[in-house]
Amino acid sequence: MYAMVMSPPSAPAAPQPSAPSTIDVALHRSPDQRWGFRLQGGADYRTQLTVMRVEPNSPAQGKLRVGDAIQTVNGKKSRQLSHAQASEVIKESGNSLKLTIVREPNAAACLDHIRPPGKPKFSRPGS
């Protein structure tokens, strides 16, 4: 005589965290338009160049996200670029810019600790 043993149904697997994605981004703008993103970091800060802000209604909106790590700027590896050098390469790119980014899930939340509270306050030089 054989006995049938039934095992309980297995629970669904826990969702795995999403892996980082490497993405090639091409931005295009009109001559009087800004790119619409701000960087932080660079070799001089010993940190990865990272997107800190994306402006609404800009060429960067919908293509870049806060927290995206910039790997290359127009083919130049960003690890070797200071913040000023990266900014210069971007300025020299004309109206087309190619970036390779690594997008980590929830990367923007990792930057919250470095944002000062409240609205930014700026003053004019010499005032």
UniProtKB/TrEMBL annotation:
A GO molecular-function annotation: muscle alpha-actinin binding
Residues covered by region (Disordered): 1-20
Keywords associated with the record: Cytoplasm, LIM domain, Metal-binding, Zinc
InterPro entries (UniProt xref): PDZ, PDZ-LIM_domain, PDZ_sf
Subcellular localization(s) per the UniProt record: Cytoplasm
Keyword DNA damage: no
Cytoplasm found in the keyword field: yes
Gene Ontology CC terms: adherens junction; filamentous actin; stress fiber; Z disc
Pro residues bias (residue ranges): 9-18
Ranges for domain PDZ: 24-105
Annotated signal peptide: none
SMART domains from the UniProt entry: PDZ
BP GO annotations: actin cytoskeleton organization; muscle structure development
Protein name: PDZ domain-containing protein
Native species: Macrostomum lignano
